[in-house]
Amino acid sequence: MTAQTGAETSAQSPELAVAFYRLMSKVQHGDKRVRKALSSGEAAMSYWPVDGQEAMSAGAMLALSDSDQLVTTYRGLGDVLAKGIDLKGYFAEILGRRDGLSKGKAGAMGIYDPAHGIAWTTGIVGAGPLIANGIALAAAHRGTGQVVLVSFGDGATSIGYVHEAMNMAAVWSLPVIFFCQNNAWAEGTAYDRYTRAARLSDRAVGYGMPGVTVDGTDPQAVYDAVSTAADRARAGDGPTFVEATAYRLQGHYFGDAMAYADQDELAAKRADPPFTRYRARLIAGGAATEAELDAIDNEVIVELDEAFTAAAASEPPDIDELTRDVFSCNGSQLAEPGQVHATLPGGDTEEMGLVQAINRTLDRAMAADDSIVLLGEDIGDPSGGGMFKVTAGLSAKYGEGRVLDTPIAESAIVGAAIGASLGGLRPVAELMFMDFLGVAMDQIANHAAKVRYMSGGRKGAPLVIRTMVGMAAGPQHSQAFEAWAMHTPGLKVVWPSTAADAAGLLKACVTDNDPCLFVESMKLYYGGGKGPVPIADYVIPLGQADVKRQGSDVTVVTYGVMVHAALEAAEKLAGEGVSVEVVDLRTLVPLDLVTVLDSVRKTTRLVVAHESVGFCGPGAEIAAAVGTELFGVLSAPIQRVAGTYTPIPRAATLEAACRPGADQLIDAIRRIS
Amino acid sequence: MPKPGDAITEAEVTELFHEEGGAVSEGEPLYSIATDKVEMDIESPATGTVSWKVDEGGTYEVGELIAVIS
User: Fold this and answer.
1) d(CA A225, CA A241)
2) Of the candidates A494, A508, A517, A511, which has an alpha carbon nearest to the alpha carbon of residue A448?
3) For burial by CB atoms within 10 Å, which of A252, A427, A454, B60 has the most?
4) Are A529 and A553 members of one domain?
5) Which residues of B touch A38 (CB under 8 A)?
6) pLDDT for residue A584 is more than 50
7) Structural domain tally of chain B?
8) In whole angstroms, what is the distance from residue A422 CA to residue B26 CA?
């Protein structure tokens, strides 16, 4: 581990020194132009200044090649300007205008300009490194030779995500540079009030990667450190932690007067800003004359001002943009009406449970498409082929480069999947239990689900997250959280009830252009879900419910394990002369409301059932939708049969009382028929 | 009146740093504002002669015309 601080490094050449100056000038004047617009009232928005951090962005970006990728943060103006972003598109985006890179839908927290090497931006502190890993994984997988530099603040080192990301990058030797812009402030909290670490780069030793701290006011020092890291990454030797230290000369946001700072120290720092100091150094050292640097400043100022003025003249987006770009093809939470429903192919079948059906589908998909990679805990054969053997044999067949055993780090798994999808792969991530959704929820809800919207429809995140709802394992390993996912715009949610459906639906997910949450029931893994699966290959398109049993008196709408309870109830009630129709939703988002309405129109009675908690559950949404559409048609109140408003208890007697089954369904049907 | 924070809709003009008709330069402090959340100096966005449209101690909505620099 090395550290260099304090000593000024001399520029390798006058040309390089002037190139640093040009980028520093661009950052300095870009930041000023935005703050001027905010001061004058020309613009009103949240803005996070970079005054004092020019040398960090300039030195780092100049050390990268044009095709190398940047992941940055909301305080990203310096990085993206130095990387060479489309200026008008950038300014229009932060202003929320239609000419913005993402049509004004993302703002400064979602800058995406892949043509200029800006691979993603996040507004969530510490989330970028997780995604950078996946972009780097894709680059390594595809042999592009690209390096990914992920920029984050010193405050981000306090978040667990950064730990997960650095550990994963190190263990996989990913071509990533963790570039920590230490500006002395975690928003308003001073460095020594949130950490006891002497240097943040010291943490690198814990991951087995080099760590270096350099003077972030000296572009050459930053350049040298990032160049070394880039060479190392490109050679396949893995990541480096580069910490650059400086002092943020403006508030956390425009409007923050930094009352929390020592005012004498702040005044002294402002009196000697890095940009002015570097300028004086160049003139004193003979690298450039004052007139030459003035000419650069003027050129940069004109370029920035033209771009900003043009961006400010751009109109806000049309209101019809609101609902575009949630899903590919401008899909919504409801399936397109008028779809021709898929039928299973004829021919020979084989008897299998969900585990085998999913394994077979992944196997066939991986054989057909090299871009499909699997990520998850214990999924490789050296680690057992999966806790439930769903992925058994796949790493032996396709290699550990495509079936990646991960550390126990769910945010890192999903983050890597998102990044890999941005980098052109089709990752399938496994979250061993659905209970762990919460562990990775920021990556799922704030990132995977929002890639398409925050890119203004330019990019989706075609990834699958497979997860399992357990049983008999108590409050933290038996829950179903599909309602969380359904409540998150941008996620598709699928929950098969049979092995045959699982094969066709998973095949649809791995070719879908949006993130899909594929929910598997442990109860159906082996014997419970066993049934005939066609040997031929087939797809069951998302958004197509399936009438699993025809009936005329009552409709039961359900999914997953409860489909089997509904079929059992229907069989029993048939003996009493009650004819029950069972609608298996199969896909929860997009929801096939048309099939539900068609069935209820016929039977005039509805029971909605699911295993998960009834209160505010998916059944409430379906009951409300049917009540709204068919109020005059219903001949009885809609019934809901669902889990109790309790955690799932360990005691088998209590768990049985908590989860609904055929008996509760029979009671509900009898109440209304 | 600039918007110095997401939830801010109005602010008090606490001090005008230049006389009516005085010369101002771009980047130098022009006036100060205060809200429950922030107190800050606002830099002049232009160079010229200032003509004030507000009074010290007055509270104004975001977007209100503060001054004209010509």
Assistant:
1) 10
2) A517
3) A427
4) no
5) 2-3
6) yes
7) 1
8) 43
Of A35, A44, A251, the CB nearest to B3: A44
Over residues A486-513, the mean pLDDT reads 98
Measured between alpha carbons, how far is A345 from A520 in angstroms, rounded to an integer?
23
Provide ipTM, 2 decimals.
0.86
* DSSP sequence for A456-521: TTS-----EEEEEE--SS-TTSS---HHHHHTSTT-EEE--SSHHHHHHHHHHHHH-SS-EEEEEE
- Residue A434 to residue A357: CA distance in whole angstroms: 20
Report the C-alpha gap between A623 and A548 in whole angstroms: 20
Integer Cα distance of A41 and A492 in angstroms: 41
Out of A29, A447, A477, A564, which one is annotated catalytic? A477
Q: Has residue A11 got a pLDDT over 80?
A: no
Q: Locate B4 and state its tokens.
A: 């110095």
Domain that includes residue B56, residue range: 10-69
A552 and A508 part of one domain = no
Q: List the single residue in B2, B26, B46 with the smallest CB-CB distance to A38.
A: B2
What is the number of residues in chain A?
673
pLDDT of residue A411: 98
d(CA A32, nearest CA chain B) in Å: 9
Cα A451 to the center of its chain, rounded Å? 7
Structural domain includes residue A330: no
Whole-angstrom Cα distance, residue A429 to residue A415?
Answer: 10
Q: Is B50 inside a domain boundary? A: yes
What pLDDT band is residue A12 in, cutting at 50, 70 and 90?
confident
Token pair recorded at residue A582: 């069972």
The answer to whether A94 touches A108, Cβ cutoff 8 Å, is: yes
Residue of A36, A39, A258, A301 to mutate for B, most B C-beta atoms under 10 A: A39
CATH at A651:
3.40.50.920
Beta bridge partners of B32: B15, B41
Q: pTM (2 decimals)?
A: 0.95
Q: What percent of chain A has pLDDT over 70?
A: 98
Instruction: Give the CA count within 13 Å in the CB-facing half-sphere of A667.
Output: 9
Predicted local confidence at residue A344, as pLDDT: 95
- A45 CB neighbours in chain B (<8 A) are 3
Amino acid at A352: M
Retrieve residue A210's tokens: 């080099």
Cβ distance of A255 and B46 shorter than 8 Å: no
Q: Quick check: B39 and A38 CB within 8 A?
A: no
Name the CA radius of gyration of chain A, rounded. 28
Chain B residues with beta carbon closer than 8 angstroms to that of A42:
45
